[in-house]
Request: fold
Amino acid sequence: MLAIGLPAAARGDAGTLDVTTLRLRLKDTPAIGLIGKFRLKSEIADMVGDLAALHAGRPGQTLEAIHTRYRALVVRVVGLPEQGDAPLAQDLNSSTEHLWATLADPGQVASLAKS
Reply:
């Protein structure tokens, strides 16, 4: 598993994925094709941008609306590698709330929006 080779700081607490580890694992998984990875990257960037705008006080979507988009995206992403990369699907599924807590935090999402 790719996360084992990452430094401890790049992994989430209690075995959950953090955003950095998830990005690497999604990038490296053979279970998602190149086009799927580009679409996914774009959707994630849009969502992080919307969260950054919300946290910066700019009008746009509500946190609840973005959370709904996030949950739908997670369901879809878990289904993508489920057959070809079951460990990634399982780790993402078990990390959903931890990842959302990161995205809902204004300070953390600001740094994600820049990366």
